[in-house]
Amino acid sequence: MTSLRFVEQLRDLVGGVDVVLSDIWGVVHNGLESFPEACEALHTFRQQGGTVILITNAPRPADSVQRQLRKLGVADETYDAIVSSGDLTRHFVADHPGQKIFWIGPERDSSIHRGLDATLVPLEQADYIICTGLFDDETESAEDYRDTLLKALERKLTLVCANPDIVVERGDRLIYCAGAVAELYRELGGEVIFYGKPHRPIYERAMALATERRGRPTELSRVLAIGDSVRTDLTGALGFGIDLLFVTRGIHSEQFEGIEQLDAASIKELFGHPPRALMRELKW
């Protein structure tokens, strides 16, 4: 590929596509408001026989994600199912009954523990760490956790990252996520287990849900991912063997401002391996 152009409409890309795996934050909403044209595009794809699985690094169960989507005005008819990194993290907790957890994250993520045998304790008593985010992502960065992580490293604690994102949009600002803390711990020499994009388990779960909805498996050549992050969405899709439509309005928006076409050098610099196409914002 010598150039990579922007396309205007999803309809031009979904011929031969049966399943869309769409990111949520940055594609469907920005944390404060939904994007009506994106919701309409996914709904229209479904009306024409396609299946839409929302695939998100939200550190909460799928039903909590659904409640947030409803509050932001995203109708249930926009998608068939949701799979979240929070769901996969909950499976880890369920598979380690009786172990004690030191939790790093804001109170709004407390639903990740709902209904589980999860005993939350101070760091000194913990068997492992779960990180769903920063305690105060409005003011903190990963560096604020360095001393805590060094103490965890001394105890050789595993950190389970329930959201591999480094940053995410909140309105017109970027805020730090659990991935920033997890990457610092890994740099310090700590053991980290990541759940969510770009790691394979979340894609496997998404395809299992698509099979349930469609009643039969779907070949990966007939699957299209949609996302706005090179690190999670593009890397995850390529690693799983599916094409990606890259939405530029998200966390990389400044890098694409004023660009109509990318040459080979720019593609390599921005993406490494290019996505299937670019779209400023998702539209049918």
TrEMBL record:
At the top level, the lineage of the source is Bacteria
Pfam families found in the cross-reference section? Hydrolase_6 (PF13344), Hydrolase_like (PF13242)
| Regions annotated as coiled coil | none
InterPro entries recorded: HAD-like_sf (IPR036412), HAD-SF_hydro_IIA (IPR006357), HAD-SF_hydro_IIA_hyp3 (IPR006356), HAD_sf (IPR023214)
What's in the keyword line of the UniProt record?
Answer: Hydrolase
Q: Which GO terms describe its molecular function?
A: hydrolase activity
Official protein name in the record: TIGR01459 family HAD-type hydrolase
What is the protein's species of origin? Answer: Bradyrhizobium brasilense
